[in-house]
Amino acid sequence: MNIILLGPPGAGKGTQARRLVEERGMVQLSTGDMLRDARTSGTEMGTKVAAIMDAGQLVTDEIVIGLIEEKIRSGNPAGFIFDGFPRTLKQADALAELLSRNGAQLEAVIEMQVDDTALVKRITGRFTCGNCGEVYHDETKPTKVAGKCDECGSSDLKRRADDNEDSLKTRLMEYYKKTSPLIGYYYAKGDLRPVDGLASPDNVADQIVKALAL
Ligand code: AP5
Tell me, what's the pLDDT at 162? Predict the structure, then answer.
Protein backbone atom coordinates (compact mmCIF):
# COMPACT_ATOMS: atom_id res chain seq x y z
CA MET A 1 0.00 0.00 0.00
CA ASN A 2 1.40 3.41 -1.00
CA ILE A 3 0.08 6.45 0.84
CA ILE A 4 0.78 10.16 1.14
CA LEU A 5 0.68 12.07 4.43
CA LEU A 6 -0.32 15.57 3.37
CA GLY A 7 -0.43 18.53 5.72
CA PRO A 8 1.23 21.80 6.74
CA PRO A 9 4.52 22.00 8.68
CA GLY A 10 3.97 20.53 12.14
CA ALA A 11 0.76 18.69 11.22
CA GLY A 12 2.24 15.46 12.62
CA LYS A 13 3.25 13.74 9.35
CA GLY A 14 6.60 12.51 10.68
CA THR A 15 5.06 11.36 13.99
CA GLN A 16 2.40 9.27 12.24
CA ALA A 17 4.80 7.98 9.57
CA ARG A 18 7.05 6.53 12.28
CA ARG A 19 4.08 4.69 13.79
CA LEU A 20 3.08 3.24 10.41
CA VAL A 21 6.65 2.05 9.89
CA GLU A 22 6.62 0.27 13.27
CA GLU A 23 3.10 -1.14 12.97
CA ARG A 24 2.90 -2.02 9.28
CA GLY A 25 6.51 -2.38 8.13
CA MET A 26 5.99 0.31 5.51
CA VAL A 27 8.94 2.46 4.39
CA GLN A 28 8.87 6.18 5.21
CA LEU A 29 10.09 8.41 2.39
CA SER A 30 10.55 11.87 3.88
CA THR A 31 12.06 14.31 1.39
CA GLY A 32 12.80 16.67 4.32
CA ASP A 33 14.90 13.94 6.02
CA MET A 34 16.64 13.08 2.74
CA LEU A 35 17.55 16.73 2.17
CA ARG A 36 18.78 17.11 5.78
CA ASP A 37 20.92 13.95 5.34
CA ALA A 38 22.39 15.44 2.15
CA ARG A 39 23.29 18.59 4.10
CA THR A 40 24.93 16.66 6.93
CA SER A 41 26.97 14.52 4.56
CA GLY A 42 28.14 17.70 2.78
CA THR A 43 27.11 16.68 -0.76
CA GLU A 44 27.05 19.40 -3.43
CA MET A 45 23.27 19.21 -3.53
CA GLY A 46 23.06 19.41 0.29
CA THR A 47 25.13 22.60 0.32
CA LYS A 48 23.01 24.07 -2.48
CA VAL A 49 19.70 23.55 -0.67
CA ALA A 50 20.79 24.49 2.88
CA ALA A 51 19.95 28.21 2.70
CA ILE A 52 16.66 27.54 0.90
CA MET A 53 15.55 25.11 3.62
CA ASP A 54 16.60 27.37 6.49
CA ALA A 55 14.58 30.20 4.97
CA GLY A 56 11.54 27.92 4.77
CA GLN A 57 11.24 27.89 0.97
CA LEU A 58 10.70 24.84 -1.21
CA VAL A 59 13.70 23.35 -3.01
CA THR A 60 13.31 22.71 -6.75
CA ASP A 61 10.97 20.04 -8.06
CA GLU A 62 13.84 18.45 -10.04
CA ILE A 63 15.91 17.81 -6.90
CA VAL A 64 13.14 16.20 -4.83
CA ILE A 65 11.71 14.19 -7.73
CA GLY A 66 15.22 12.82 -8.32
CA LEU A 67 15.52 11.78 -4.66
CA ILE A 68 12.15 10.00 -4.68
CA GLU A 69 12.73 8.32 -8.04
CA GLU A 70 15.79 6.50 -6.72
CA LYS A 71 13.82 5.12 -3.74
CA ILE A 72 10.72 4.06 -5.68
CA ARG A 73 12.91 2.15 -8.13
CA SER A 74 14.30 0.06 -5.25
CA GLY A 75 10.67 -0.96 -4.36
CA ASN A 76 9.15 -2.21 -1.09
CA PRO A 77 6.53 -4.96 -0.69
CA ALA A 78 4.78 -3.31 2.30
CA GLY A 79 4.58 0.01 0.45
CA PHE A 80 5.78 3.56 0.90
CA ILE A 81 4.61 6.42 3.11
CA PHE A 82 5.32 9.66 1.28
CA ASP A 83 5.97 12.24 4.01
CA GLY A 84 6.39 15.82 2.77
CA PHE A 85 6.22 14.74 -0.89
CA PRO A 86 4.59 15.73 -3.19
CA ARG A 87 4.42 19.44 -2.39
CA THR A 88 3.56 20.86 -5.82
CA LEU A 89 1.29 19.79 -8.66
CA LYS A 90 4.40 19.02 -10.75
CA GLN A 91 5.65 16.66 -8.00
CA ALA A 92 2.20 15.03 -7.77
CA ASP A 93 2.15 14.32 -11.51
CA ALA A 94 5.72 13.00 -11.33
CA LEU A 95 4.80 10.67 -8.46
CA ALA A 96 1.85 9.21 -10.37
CA GLU A 97 4.12 8.57 -13.35
CA LEU A 98 6.94 7.06 -11.26
CA LEU A 99 4.56 4.70 -9.46
CA SER A 100 2.90 3.55 -12.67
CA ARG A 101 6.29 3.04 -14.35
CA ASN A 102 7.19 0.74 -11.45
CA GLY A 103 3.89 -1.18 -11.58
CA ALA A 104 2.58 0.44 -8.40
CA GLN A 105 -0.20 2.86 -7.50
CA LEU A 106 -1.27 5.30 -4.83
CA GLU A 107 -3.94 3.96 -2.46
CA ALA A 108 -4.77 6.97 -0.27
CA VAL A 109 -3.82 10.52 0.63
CA ILE A 110 -4.24 11.27 4.33
CA GLU A 111 -4.92 14.98 4.76
CA MET A 112 -3.89 16.01 8.28
CA GLN A 113 -5.94 19.06 9.26
CA VAL A 114 -4.44 21.30 11.97
CA ASP A 115 -5.03 25.03 12.48
CA ASP A 116 -2.19 27.55 12.23
CA THR A 117 -2.11 28.51 15.94
CA ALA A 118 -1.47 24.89 16.93
CA LEU A 119 1.19 24.54 14.21
CA VAL A 120 3.24 27.43 15.61
CA LYS A 121 3.18 25.88 19.11
CA ARG A 122 4.11 22.44 17.78
CA ILE A 123 7.00 23.66 15.62
CA THR A 124 8.58 26.03 18.12
CA GLY A 125 8.53 23.34 20.86
CA ARG A 126 9.81 20.44 18.74
CA PHE A 127 13.15 18.65 19.18
CA THR A 128 14.32 15.30 17.83
CA CYS A 129 16.86 12.63 18.65
CA GLY A 130 19.81 12.91 16.26
CA ASN A 131 20.53 9.20 16.72
CA CYS A 132 17.18 7.41 16.24
CA GLY A 133 14.96 10.24 14.93
CA GLU A 134 12.35 10.08 17.73
CA VAL A 135 10.30 13.33 17.77
CA TYR A 136 9.62 15.21 21.05
CA HIS A 137 7.96 18.42 22.21
CA ASP A 138 8.88 20.68 25.14
CA GLU A 139 5.33 20.64 26.54
CA THR A 140 3.34 17.79 25.00
CA LYS A 141 6.06 15.13 24.73
CA PRO A 142 9.15 15.83 26.81
CA THR A 143 11.77 13.12 27.36
CA LYS A 144 11.29 11.13 30.58
CA VAL A 145 14.86 11.93 31.65
CA ALA A 146 15.97 15.47 30.77
CA GLY A 147 18.47 15.49 27.89
CA LYS A 148 18.20 11.76 27.08
CA CYS A 149 16.17 10.10 24.33
CA ASP A 150 13.55 7.68 25.74
CA GLU A 151 14.01 5.27 22.83
CA CYS A 152 17.79 4.93 22.48
CA GLY A 153 19.29 6.84 25.44
CA SER A 154 21.26 9.20 23.18
CA SER A 155 21.90 12.73 24.44
CA ASP A 156 22.12 14.03 20.86
CA LEU A 157 18.84 15.97 21.02
CA LYS A 158 18.48 18.65 18.34
CA ARG A 159 16.31 21.49 17.12
CA ARG A 160 15.96 22.19 13.40
CA ALA A 161 17.37 25.43 11.98
CA ASP A 162 14.03 26.15 10.26
CA ASP A 163 11.95 25.62 13.43
CA ASN A 164 11.62 29.30 14.32
CA GLU A 165 8.72 31.71 13.88
CA ASP A 166 10.25 33.59 10.90
CA SER A 167 11.00 30.47 8.80
CA LEU A 168 7.67 29.00 9.83
CA LYS A 169 5.81 32.01 8.35
CA THR A 170 7.50 31.33 4.99
CA ARG A 171 6.91 27.57 5.29
CA LEU A 172 3.19 28.17 5.89
CA MET A 173 3.01 30.61 2.97
CA GLU A 174 4.72 28.06 0.71
CA TYR A 175 2.26 25.43 1.93
CA TYR A 176 -0.85 27.51 1.21
CA LYS A 177 0.43 28.78 -2.18
CA LYS A 178 2.03 25.64 -3.61
CA THR A 179 0.98 22.55 -1.64
CA SER A 180 -2.64 23.11 -0.58
CA PRO A 181 -3.86 22.91 -4.24
CA LEU A 182 -3.03 19.19 -3.90
CA ILE A 183 -6.05 18.81 -1.61
CA GLY A 184 -8.38 19.54 -4.53
CA TYR A 185 -6.22 17.50 -6.91
CA TYR A 186 -6.45 14.34 -4.78
CA TYR A 187 -10.10 14.97 -3.85
CA ALA A 188 -10.93 14.98 -7.57
CA LYS A 189 -9.06 11.70 -7.99
CA GLY A 190 -11.07 10.16 -5.11
CA ASP A 191 -7.94 9.53 -3.01
CA LEU A 192 -8.37 12.12 -0.23
CA ARG A 193 -8.99 10.96 3.38
CA PRO A 194 -9.17 13.93 5.81
CA VAL A 195 -8.29 13.33 9.47
CA ASP A 196 -8.48 15.66 12.49
CA GLY A 197 -4.80 16.29 13.20
CA LEU A 198 -5.64 18.31 16.34
CA ALA A 199 -6.60 15.12 18.18
CA SER A 200 -4.06 13.23 20.32
CA PRO A 201 -1.36 11.25 18.44
CA ASP A 202 -3.12 7.95 19.41
CA ASN A 203 -6.46 9.22 18.16
CA VAL A 204 -4.91 10.48 14.89
CA ALA A 205 -3.33 7.03 14.43
CA ASP A 206 -6.76 5.40 14.91
CA GLN A 207 -8.32 7.76 12.37
CA ILE A 208 -5.59 6.84 9.86
CA VAL A 209 -6.18 3.11 10.37
CA LYS A 210 -9.90 3.63 9.72
CA ALA A 211 -9.21 5.84 6.70
CA LEU A 212 -6.92 3.20 5.18
CA ALA A 213 -9.54 0.48 5.67
CA LEU A 214 -11.98 2.30 3.38
P1 AP5 B 1 9.97 18.72 6.09
O2 AP5 B 1 11.03 18.09 6.86
O3 AP5 B 1 9.08 17.87 5.24
O4 AP5 B 1 9.13 19.62 7.07
P5 AP5 B 1 7.57 20.03 7.15
O6 AP5 B 1 6.67 19.60 6.05
O7 AP5 B 1 7.63 21.48 7.40
O8 AP5 B 1 7.01 19.17 8.25
P9 AP5 B 1 7.61 18.98 9.66
O10 AP5 B 1 8.65 17.91 9.64
O11 AP5 B 1 8.04 20.31 10.20
O12 AP5 B 1 6.32 18.55 10.50
P13 AP5 B 1 5.53 17.19 10.63
O14 AP5 B 1 4.21 17.35 9.95
O15 AP5 B 1 6.37 16.01 10.22
O16 AP5 B 1 5.28 17.20 12.20
P17 AP5 B 1 5.93 16.31 13.37
O18 AP5 B 1 5.38 14.93 13.31
O19 AP5 B 1 7.40 16.47 13.43
O20 AP5 B 1 10.59 19.82 5.10
C21 AP5 B 1 11.58 20.72 5.53
C22 AP5 B 1 12.06 21.56 4.34
O23 AP5 B 1 12.65 20.69 3.34
C24 AP5 B 1 10.97 22.33 3.57
O25 AP5 B 1 10.66 23.57 4.18
C26 AP5 B 1 11.65 22.48 2.20
O27 AP5 B 1 12.62 23.49 2.21
C28 AP5 B 1 12.35 21.15 2.01
N29 AP5 B 1 11.49 20.13 1.36
C30 AP5 B 1 11.11 18.93 1.91
N31 AP5 B 1 10.35 18.24 1.05
C32 AP5 B 1 10.24 19.01 -0.06
C33 AP5 B 1 9.54 18.85 -1.30
N34 AP5 B 1 8.81 17.76 -1.56
N35 AP5 B 1 9.63 19.84 -2.22
C36 AP5 B 1 10.39 20.94 -1.99
N37 AP5 B 1 11.05 21.17 -0.84
C38 AP5 B 1 10.98 20.21 0.12
O39 AP5 B 1 5.25 17.04 14.63
C40 AP5 B 1 5.59 18.37 14.98
C41 AP5 B 1 5.55 18.53 16.52
O42 AP5 B 1 4.21 18.34 16.98
C43 AP5 B 1 6.41 17.49 17.29
O44 AP5 B 1 7.00 18.09 18.39
C45 AP5 B 1 5.39 16.41 17.73
O46 AP5 B 1 5.78 15.78 18.94
C47 AP5 B 1 4.12 17.24 17.90
N48 AP5 B 1 2.91 16.49 17.55
C49 AP5 B 1 2.76 15.62 16.49
N50 AP5 B 1 1.50 15.13 16.46
C51 AP5 B 1 0.84 15.72 17.51
C52 AP5 B 1 -0.50 15.62 18.00
N53 AP5 B 1 -1.42 14.85 17.40
N54 AP5 B 1 -0.83 16.37 19.09
C55 AP5 B 1 0.08 17.17 19.70
N56 AP5 B 1 1.38 17.29 19.29
C57 AP5 B 1 1.75 16.58 18.19
Answer: 92
